[in-house]
## 1
Amino acid sequence: MRPRALRVLTRKNVLAGLMFIGIAALGLFLSRHYPVGTTLRMGTGYVPRLLCWILMGLGAIIFLQGLREEDDAARPGGWAQLVPLVVVTLSLVAFALAIEQLGLVAAILLLIGIGALVAPGIKVWEALAAAVVLIVLSWAIFVLGLGLPISLWPVW
Amino acid sequence: MELLDNLAIGFGVALTPANLGFALIGALVGTLIGVLPGIGPIATIAMLLPLTFRLEPVSGLIMLAGIFYGAQYGGSTTAILVNLPGETSSVVTCIDGHQMARQGKAGSALAIAALGSFFAGTVSTFIIATFAPPLARVGQSFGAPEYFALMVLGLVAAVVLAHGSVLKAIAMIILGLLFGLVGTDGQTATQRFTFDITALADGIDFAVLAIGLFGIGEVITNLTRGGEDRSIMTAPIKRLWPTREDFRLAWPAVLRGTGLGSILGVLPGGGATLSSFAAYVLEKKVAREPERFGHGAVEGVAGPESANNAGAQTSFIPMLTLGIPGNAVMALMIGAMTIHGIQPGPQIMTERPTLFWGMVASMWIGNLMLVVINLPLIGIWVQLLKVPYRFLYLSILLFCAIGVYTIGNSAFSVLVAAFFGVLGYVFMRLECEPAPMILGFVLGPLMEDNLRRAMRISSGDPMIFVNRPISLGLLIAAAILLLTVALPAIRRKREEAFQES
């Protein structure tokens, strides 16, 4: 059993409230130098800062409501759930870094290779077969069919 | 007859071989993603947006529209056969549809769902054709203050009609408005929230945001949920044609569902999902023996299935006539139009009659195709369900990545989409609906623009919104809507309606 104070923090609405407050605070920090102007002559910062303050207020209310609720944990599960999140993000980052210099084929291989790590119950040969099929398919649709200027192979 | 002339123009456009082909592709893709759980019309349309860049605008829009209403047909198939809603709009169809299938009446349920949808599609196409021109004429008399008031009403309605917490929905809209501000401020040419990254100077591309939130976010959510049990109900479909008794019970429900769906579809924030939920509640209320519901009542399939298709179609009305998106899919359609350099708004109907009427006519043709695609070919779609999620997941992930990259040939966009994917996952876990955020994102710049224009007209006097009767009426309507949600009695009713499933 975790301490009560910590368990409260896993509630959906508590977390959601904190998220909105956090984003609003970040927005206010980033816009701290934007000129606000007046209501009649709105400056660059007028609308963004107004929205951030509203968001912060809403976040605070959602947070407080969450504290008052019955125990409603976001999800049991723990850190294992973060694995797909990290892997999917990494596969997209790899694709983005590869596509322009290494070409489409390498980018797809990287995306499938990394992404397959979390594909439920996939075998190595299945991942390879999927990569081949998807490379051919993407080439046919985007390069051949639509004539988009994507290089297939590394550009030296 | 003006209506017949217009429809003749429309069918002339829609019946060209190329456009028939695109309608068919749209209907097929729509059915496919409708059948497959884990990918919805929003993500698909966003992914396919770049594919339509090189098409004629009409053809592209015909195809994208086909995906949207096609998904309503496909979603019911899995709901009935597998007890797994392919789309959120067919969640309620599971309740009685799957019970019918277990009693050996799968064929009957599928046929009623398809025929009900077709009837609803036909009626709502005529509703669009009849009511769109007068509405567009009203729209043409709108100035900046009226548009601003209309968008306020739209956002308020989106909040009221969203599932779950009203406060969270409002917060999500504000978040969408904030993301819409990223980029260069048109008035002062200063950059806002760009972190000095040149690629962000033009703002975040709408399709990138949508693919990230809905495509990638859903992929991550599905993976964390773990191995989903998809036991397919493979009882052979004996007879497709419903019995006379089923017909007798179904047709009044189809009529009610069509009526309700057509009305709810027009409302901002409305559309397919809301219509199907509301129709199920209505059917249960008017039924003589409500206890049959949940045990295979035909009306529980006929009503919601007609309603979701009617709602899907009539939600095109505000988009086509006023240029205002009522839901996230319509926001994407607006994105598709602007990509082709078409300014959405009331002038579309007069300036581009072939585009408008071609789309309307193609909707009816698409619905006809869908009946054929869904009924005799049902076996093929069921087979597709056996494709393991591991392959589906890799394909969706890749097409999201390439789709985003091709929007602006920018690798940076893929990183932005990945960021929104993570955000989308967080939202889903915290039960913050991303749909209102998309609406805020699209309407944000439009609202700011109209607000500033209104202020220029009145030289800075905010009373302009109250002095103009139409704008005043719209704002009062928005205030009343907002007040009603705040009243405890109505709030309870609203929660009941959404929990009925």
## 2
Amino acid sequence: MSIDKKITPQSYHTSYLPTWCPGCGDFGIMAAIKNALSELQIPSHNVVIVYGIGCAGNMASTIKCYGFHSLHGRALPVALGAKIANKNLTVIAVAGDGDQYSEGTNHLIHLARYNSNITLIVANNRLFSLTTGQASPTTPEGTATKTTPWGEIKHEFNPLALSLVSGTTFVARGAAFNLSHLTNLIKQGIKHPGFSHIDVLQQCVTLNKINTVEWYQQRVYELGANYDKNNYQLALDKALETEKLPIGIFYQTKRPVYEEKIDWTAGTNAITEKIVFNKEKLLKEFE
Amino acid sequence: MNNFSIKIVGPAGFGIKVTGQILAKYFLRSGANVFAYTEYPSLIRGGHNTFQIDVSLEPIHSASEKCDLLIALTKEALEKEQHNLNNKAIIICDESVAPDLRLRKGDNIVRVSLVELAKKSGGELMKNTVAIGVALGLLDYSPNIINDIIEESFGHKGDVVEQNKNAFNLGYEWGKANKTTNTNEYSMKGLKKKNNSLLMTGNQACALGAIASGCQFYSAYPMTPATEVLHYLVAKEKETGIIAHQAEDEIAAIHAALGASFAGARAATGTSGGGFALMNEGLSLAGQLELPVVIFEVMRPAPATGLPTWTEQGDLKYVINAAHGEFARAVLAPGNPEECFILTQKAFNLADKYQIPVFVLSDKFLGESSYTVSEKIFNQVEKKVSSVQYQLSRQNENLFARYKLEKDGISSRTIPSVAGGEYIANSDEHDEFGLTNEEAENKKHNTEKRMKKLAELKKEIPLPTLYGDVDADITLVCWGSMLGPCLNAVSECQSVKVSKKKINVMHFSYVWPLPLGLDKHLNKFKKLVLVENNYQGQLGQLIREETGLEIKDKILKYDGRPFWPEEIIRKIEKI
């Protein structure tokens, strides 16, 4: 592929046939990522996508770039290491709700603190699907699943509210069935200088018979042009809404970025940094 | 006397460590060989802290069992130590310390108004500095270089420098005035000032090894006794350019290192056993993705929280076998700071060459004890090895065949930003491009590919190092930090003729994989005796597993303390 050739969504295609169920929300998320990257004209060799484990993680083989299919819950620390090592890369993390909000919750809170320039996309189908349908932290209370046959008795987790109070500088919600809206959110997330968290409402056509596309469409509304995304308190109120489900950018603010604050590597990258072993100077304190 | 041992003891918060370090540096700069060993409980105030300095004209590799001069800052501290004294020991303590102690005949208790003298120089806290003044005065050592060391130690604390100098002087004058004849034997007439000796811990030497290796990214979570590596590297970030990241937990620490390694940085992480337990899945991930990473595991006694600030060699089998699945790894176990520096560099190169995780396995005893190290060793900087392709001659439309099956199992690797080098580092079983693949043949070939690297690696693992005459009656077999106590035991045996038997030491600094031809090599020796700081004799078990040869004689210790050379000698005598 020559560099000057125009980048299209096809530039990110691999020969691998996705293994999702027909109608799965992950198709939409995959397409939105490819669209966003091509609209921003980012060559595939400068893109790192780190995946967690689950149906969403199985996206790994379907996008041509430097992919890293990590472990369950671990996409974010891997993404952080890659971003610190080479600040010029576009680093995206793709995870599921079981993945990021259960096993990987700790990393989410800390990435929010670090404000590393990474875009996190969480395919949130409110269920563990690859393991055939167990309750996840976003499964609504009362829902019957394989691990909650009498209905989930634990309270539901609010990922966007958690992200907001943890310090995420770009908090958004999209929907897997609204491709152009999601594409735009991902573009905004990539362009945002700092940690971006995009929670994606996603249907699971096989295992989640309650939160279907129709169910979502009755509840979803877009945060309009008049919505003030710089208002933190308003964003928190929006994140706490449960009857209706707003989509769009809830909150955006600027804060110094972790890897940029590492000032002794300013203007350079860790991978090109020549580490100085000045023997005389270093050994002085041991004399 | 060619060697003696000074010990400073008292509760945490009494400045035991800083005083000990001042004294250790004093003897080092006076030309002696020094070994400094410290014991402390896992708390911030109170408890019983010790700092022991073995001073010798001969090379010294470990701490001795008992001391000749004890500085006890409280009555409780003295009571705890009264059985760890050599004959005719000198004990320095405050005059208020109980006269009811039952000391042995010949012990020389020196009661000084430590507190009064300290108050005179600016504050009671400085009674530790008064005490080292008393000690050096009694032993009739010159006070000349002490001011420099005090300035270096307290330089950032303003008035404290002058106050400590005064405290030392008041103590020194008192010691000089009260000198008795029996302190003369500590004078060490043969002392000659040397210029190339350093006092350094194993952790510091590992960190320096990482810097010399060009390590660009280190991520870790604080855990005793591995934290000093992180402390050191953080302190040197601006000077060297390394990035040392304190992660939110050990899981994140190893995964961030893998992310950085994937992106092309030389990367490492470090922890102790409990933290390493959390890293296990990341270790397996490194095996599957064939990513280089160096892991410092500084052992402490376990299970669970165990003894956080003490020592044990209990994780050998764990580190070799940890993580799910079969893949290649290397485990290096340096015996002293020189080896820490050299083997850390080796670890980075092996990791890069074979694209595998490599361990540098040490423990609290090696990690936190200060050894006398020759400055010359730091000239040994190894050339960096890399298997990364930074440019591709042929661009392809598809993904790069990163996991291409090669004869030796080592495929060439690209890093993000290399055009045409895109591939998937896939934790699922994958084809040569990294695409998920569950075919039987593919899995079989990939397992063989990943294990082939272990067979290749084995070819370059050296036989264990032999210290002493080849022809010996008894060979002490040890690994990692137990080199020091074994070497000191042997030299002690030879110099004071406690044993008629000829003894040498066989030290394994490469513990996994074990070298080729080890069975033949071991059969050359008359009698092998295993010396390990654990219960099971884990190296012995490993040797038996790999060679079929059983080392029947074992000297084992698992009480959280390192071996004292004297103990090893007593055990040898019974064999």
